[in-house]
Design goal:
Number of helices: 13
Helix content: 40-55%
CATH topology of the largest domain: D-Maltodextrin-Binding Protein, domain 2
Distance between the termini: 61 Å
Number of domains: 2
Radius of gyration: 24 Å
Largest sheet: 6 strands, mixed
Length: 322
């Protein structure tokens, strides 16, 4: 037996304590789970930012939130399991799922966001766009589908309208300068553009136009939260917990719009007042799964009639849904 006394004894005790502290800290770090999420700077991101600010997921969860409008990069990253979750268009998720990328839809959260703005005249119907320029962000994209869908349903051949394709931010600038007759934009670009463009009108609410053709229901499933299939299988309980807290975050945004706008302003490079005003024309909600499923199927079935490739050519099967 070895007996230690005096300074040597104290030194050994200190070394043991340092070792134990290091071991405990290392164990805690090892137990911390990181969730990496990419999201554009849109209202759908606010519940995730709320989760991060409040720490509701617990001290053992680290949220790595990447804010970027680059949906293609998000798709590439989730396909390689370099991010765990992403916010993107519901149709985008369906398309990549049907192309073989392992993702699941956790929830659909934005159901109203797009509007038709006109310059120098107020359109009371789609027929008023005959012979006019209409700016859309992407040929074959969701807004291209909706524009053609509404034109056709209102007896207007899309060929009678001069469709111009360019990114929304570019289109908004040209619209403000009077170089475009009309444009379909999402919030908060609607609020920003109406504030900057003289003689501009919010002519048509795309959600109300949809309601006219769908038994009065104005909900369009635009945006969803997606999870990597691999992550969801390996972390089923955590994925479910994240989804539940996301829904609580949606309720927080709707109950505290001023605070939510201030939170968004920290990350979106937009004034609080613009974000707050945009909430008036955004439907951020998570509806019951069965209800959401029916609305998504109705939307997808309409897409299949005009732009089937927009969702990968077919309805996604049951494995698409978490």
């Amino acid at each position: 037996m070895i007996h230690l006394t005096g300074k040597r004894s104290m030194l050994v005790i200190l070394l043991v304590l340092v070792f134990l502290i290091t071991l405990v800290n290392g164990s805690l770090l090892a137990a911390t789970k990181k969730i990496t999420v990419q999201t554009p700077p849109v209202a759908s991101a606010l519940p995730i930012l709320w989760m991060n600010e409040t720490g509701v997921l617990g001290n053992d969860i680290e949220l790595d939130i990447k804010i970027s409008p680059d949906h293609q990069r998000a798709v590439a990253l989730i396909a390689k399991n370099e991010i765990d979750m992403m916010i993107t268009g519901v149709n985008v998720g369906a398309k990549i799922f049907n192309k073989g990328i392992d993702v699941k839809l956790l929830n659909t959260n934005i159901w109203a966001v797009d509007y038709l703005l006109t310059k120098g005249f107020k359109a009371s119907s789609w027929a008023d766009l005959r012979g006019k320029t209409l700016s859309l962000p992407l040929k074959g994209g969701p807004l291209d589908f909706l524009a053609r869908y509404f034109l056709n349903k209102n007896g207007v051949d899309p060929e009678e309208v001069k469709l111009v394709y360019q990114p929304s931010a570019n289109g908004a600038r040209y619209f403000q300068l009077g170089k475009l007759d009309s444009i379909i934009l999402p919030e908060p670009l609607v609020t920003v553009t109406l504030a900057k463009a003289k003689d501009a009108y919010l002519s048509l609410d795309l959600q109300q136009e949809w309601a006219k053709l769908h038994n009065g229901d104005d909900r369009i499933p635009y945006v969803g939260l997606f999870v990597s299939g691999k992550f969801s299988r390996e972390n089923a309980e955590l994925t479910e917990r994240f989804n539940q807290y996301y829904k609580e975050g949606v309720n927080w945004v709707n109950s505290h719009p001023q605070k939510a706008a201030a939170l968004g302003a920290k990350y979106f490079n937009l004034p609080v007042k613009v974000i707050r005003a945009s909430f008036n024309r955004i439907n951020l909600n998570c509806y019951p799964e069965g209800e959401s499923f029916k609305l998504i199927e109705a939307y997808f079935n309409e897409i299949l009639k005009i732009y089937p490739e927009l969702i990968g050519g077919r309805l996604p099967n049951e494995y698409f849904y978490f």
